Amino acid sequence: MKDVKLDPSEESVYECFACGTVVTAIAPGSCPDCGADMRNRGTPIE
Ligand SMILES: [Zn+2]
């Protein structure tokens, strides 16, 4: 497993655990739709 160090000034894609909403942000915190936890998809926009 790779130890990926995220650049805090770099936006990442996050997906909501609960509703699947996808947001691009530096630190989304919680889902803008339902307030659930977000997870980093680890997929840079190409
Ligand atoms: Zn959500």
Automatic annotation (TrEMBL):
Cited Pfam families: DUF7129
Database matches in InterPro entries: DUF7129 (IPR055553)
DUF7129 domain: residues covered: 9-44
NCBIfam families per the UniProt record, alphabetical: rubre_like_arch (NF033497)
Protein name per the record: DUF7129 domain-containing protein
